[in-house]
Write a structure and sequence with these properties.
The complex is a heterodimer of chains A (264) and B (298). Chain A has 264 residues and is mainly beta. Chain A contains four helices and 15 strands. The mean pLDDT of chain B is 94. Classes of the chains: A mainly beta (264), B alpha/beta (298). Chains A and B meet through strand 13 of A and helix 1, strand 5, strand 6 and helix 9 of B.
Chain lengths: 264, 298
């Protein structure tokens, strides 16, 4: 059974394996793209929105793995796209082509791909998983924001409107400044990913009745990544908490208690 | 030092490794991932009388040399565990020990009594040491007389063996271990996480909502070794070591210090398949070994 046969991002066999880094790019200082070699057993499961837990070499500290969305897949590889933010990503950014990383995954539940056109709304590195979504779904429009133009995720082939905080791509502002003219009703699905404050602001702008179309790719501090440590909690609308790693990371917007969610 | 097979509560195991409470759920996820090889027994996530949502996130934060957690015993409660978790856990290829926590001294026996209606648990771990809750938790473990009382109540509630998981944070662990034995405990688990805290010096704020959390790390190994050594000399019941394992040498060091079995916990966050890796390493090291000290008199 392949990922595409399985309903709505239901996880298959999770494996932990060493993978070769076949390419490393850092076109923008601090934004790193790693390409890792993978076989069909991994790639068939690497549906949009799912993630991997990468062990930080050489160890043992940083102790726990770091979660990364699968940014894009190729015929025999996949890509991780991340910003250097702390000790973990700093060590990972030092990875050289030809070296190997220990990768657990693919993990979690990805986007429910039920057909229809997608609107993508992303803030900063939150858009890192959108290229993979664009590979598998009909993405009609992307609305992206970032701190500066060089940090906007490249979604070539998809109509895109963008804005930056420093105005380096034209207008200065936030993603929410771009939402006025969005033809919301033209899209059967809305993918939302970014900082929690940004996503809250976007949710307030989604027209009444359409919030059921929003699928949120959530981010949380993560321990295990496979559902047991209860570290990556996201407040649930039904009370209690969802586990970002196994209930998500892609969660229907209606299942989240937005009032209680403070984010990472 | 036991060089295998390892024996606990009348069962013989070809591995000394147990999975520590809170780091492996009920073992079901690792079973699905095919990663229970090398595991002697799974110690479950804590089960309480009533469901608990757990603490307000963020619940984990990594520091330079370890992990702080403040999960707060999130669990669905004993009735749900009986209704849906334990039936699924009956498929586990290894024995399950259910960790039990309580808000009151009486809670422990009540939960154990309910769990006894299931054939699945082979024993219990009585958690009188959680650093992340305001009621009960480590407060019980701090007082040897309370530890003894809890142990007596649990011993009266079940014929299954149980270990009392002690706190390193308050009171005398060695006295509490002796009190657990006096109260009828079949083992002690040495020990739970260490109370820890991290503060952002720029803002003065702690990332964890409760400020403090439970600290775990391979760097804690010598603290566990010392406590296993001291406890081993004070009690006749098995000592289950928990804290600091990240390599085969760590496992052997804890066994040499007097542990009957060794739990691996936080290391599973890095290596979910740790048990088999550690066991293979242990076997390799033992193959090259003769005349290791037994730990009791050192």
């Amino acid at each position: 059974m392949t990922g595409s046969d399985r309903p709505a991002g239901v996880p298959g066999m999770i494996r932990d394996r060493m993978m070769s880094v076949t390419r490393r790019r850092e076109d923008v200082p601090g934004i790193v793209r790693l390409e890792l070699q993978a076989g069909p057993d991994f790639l068939d499961e690497a549906s949009p929105g799912r993630f991997v837990q990468v062990e930080i070499p050489p160890g043992p500290f940083p102790l726990v793995r770091r979660p990364f969305t699968i940014s894009r897949i190729g015929p025999s590889s996949f890509e991780l796209l991340f910003e250097v933010r702390g000790r973990g990503t700093e060590a990972l950014a030092a990875t050289e082509t030809g070296s190997s990383l220990r990768v657990l995954g693919p993990l979690g539940r990805g986007y429910a791909l039920d057909g229809g056109r997608w609107l993508l709304i992303g803030g900063g590195m939150g858009a890192a998983g959108f290229p993979r979504l664009c590979q598998a779904a009909d993405c009609g429009l992307a609305v992206l924001g970032a701190s500066s133009a060089c940090r906007l995720t490249d979604l070539s082939g998809v109509p895109c409107t963008s804005i930056t905080e420093d105005g380096s791509s034209g207008r200065a502002g936030l993603v929410t400044d771009l939402l006025d003219g969005v033809p919301w009703e033209h899209f059967a699905n809305i993918a939302l990913c970014g900082p929690v404050a940004m996503m809250k602001a976007v949710m307030e702008r989604v027209p009444p009745g359409l919030s059921g179309r929003v699928q949120v790719s959530a981010e949380a501090r993560m321990g295990c990544g496979w559902g047991v440590c209860e570290g990556c909690s996201v407040p649930a609308a039904a009370g209690g908490y969802l586990k970002c790693c196994t209930d998500g990371p892609v969660i229907p917007a209606g299942r989240i208690d937005w009032e209680r969610w403070e984010g990472v | 030092m036991e060089t295998g097979p390892w024996t606990l509560w009348g069962r013989e195991y070809d591995s000394p490794l147990m999975l520590a409470s809170g780091t492996a759920g009920f073992g079901l996820e690792l079973m699905e991932m095919g990663m229970l090889a090398g595991v002697a027994a799974v110690v479950s996530k804590a089960t309480t009388l009533l469901p608990r949502d757990g603490n307000v996130p963020p619940r984990i934060v990594e520091t330079r040399y370890g992990l702080l957690n403040s999960v707060g015993l999130a669990n669905p409660g004993v009735e749900e565990v009986l209704a849906s978790v334990l039936p699924a856990a009956s498929r586990l290829p290894v024995p399950l020990i259910v960790n039990v926590a309580g808000d009151t001294v009486e809670d422990y026996a009540s939960v154990v009594e309910r769990l006894d209606s299931s054939p699945v648990p082979v024993g219990y771990e009585i958690n009188v040491s959680c650093p992340n809750v305001s009621a009960g938790g480590a407060a019980f473990g701090a007082s040897p007389s309370t530890v003894e009382e809890v142990s007596r109540l649990v011993a009266a509630a079940t014929r299954r063996p149980f270990s009392v998981k002690l706190t390193p944070n308050e009171g005398s662990m060695v006295e509490s271990a002796a009190a657990a034995e006096e109260g009828g405990a079949s083992a002690v688990t040495v020990c739970n996480t260490f109370l820890g805290m991290t503060v952002d010096w720029r803002t003065g704020e702690a990332p964890l909502k409760r400020g403090v959390g439970g600290y775990s790390s391979p760097a804690l190994l010598p603290l566990t070794v010392a406590r296993v050594h001291l406890t081993r000399r004070a009690v006749g019941i098995p000592v289950l070591a928990s804290g600091g394992v990240g390599s085969p040498e760590d496992v052997l060091e804890l066994l040499a210090a007097g542990a009957t079995m060794v739990q691996v916990g936080t290391w599973l966050m890095r290596r979910p398949g740790a048990a088999l890796e550690l066991l293979e390493g242990v076997r390799e090291l033992l193959d090259g070994l003769r005349g290791f000290p037994d730990g009791t008199g050192t």
